[in-house]
Amino acid sequence: MKNMGMFLNKVMTMKIHLLAWSLALSPLLTVQAAEDPPADSSLARDQAKSVSEAVKHDAKVVAGAAKDGAKHVAETAKAVAHEVAAASKEGAHEVAATAKRGAEKTKAAINGQKKPPAADKPPAADKPPAPDKPPAR
After folding, report:
1. Each residue of 15-33: pLDDT tens digit?
2. Whole-number Å distance between alpha carbons of 104 and 101
3. Most C-beta atoms within 10 A of its C-beta, which of 45, 47, 113, 117?
4. Does 41 reside within a domain?
5. Does residue 42 lie within any of the structural domains?
């Protein structure tokens, strides 16, 4: 899952950069066409206003894309964190069960018994297998 999150992060970053470049270059084409000053100053003002509005719009689109990408990355990170926490909890339960069995065996050995009582040991079939591990056969 970690590799999936990194892949999605790279894809979103590439999309944001591509969008940013395409939006950044579009006003340059308009500016290039307006390099020859028109005879009417109101037309020049209108062109400048049009370019300014285009740049503002493009900046808003890029900011929105960056925000969406950040949300997506945060959601992926949250999912990965939940999986890690679940795996850590399962590992802690396994360690605790192993320690308990070890304590029972030690107690039985001290008391002169060959095996500890089997009634305390939970059956393995009650616990579902971990999602990353294949089921026991």
Report:
1. 776 666 666 666 665 555 5
2. 5
3. 47
4. no
5. no
- Least confident stretch, 42-51, 95-104, 117-126: 117-126
Count up the domains in the chain and report the number. 1
Residue 85 included in any domain: yes
Whether 123 is covered by a domain: the verdict is no
Three-state SS sequence of the chain: CHHHHHHHHHHHHHHHHHHHHHHHHHHHHHHHHCCCCCCCHHHHHHHHHHHHHHHHHHHHHHHHHHHHHHHHHHHHHHHHHHHHHHHHHHHHHHHHHHHHHHHHHHHHHHCCCCCCCHHHCCCHHHCCCCCCCCCCC
Which domain, by its residues, includes 94?
2-32+47-111
Tens-digit pLDDT profile for residues 57-67: 999 999 999 99
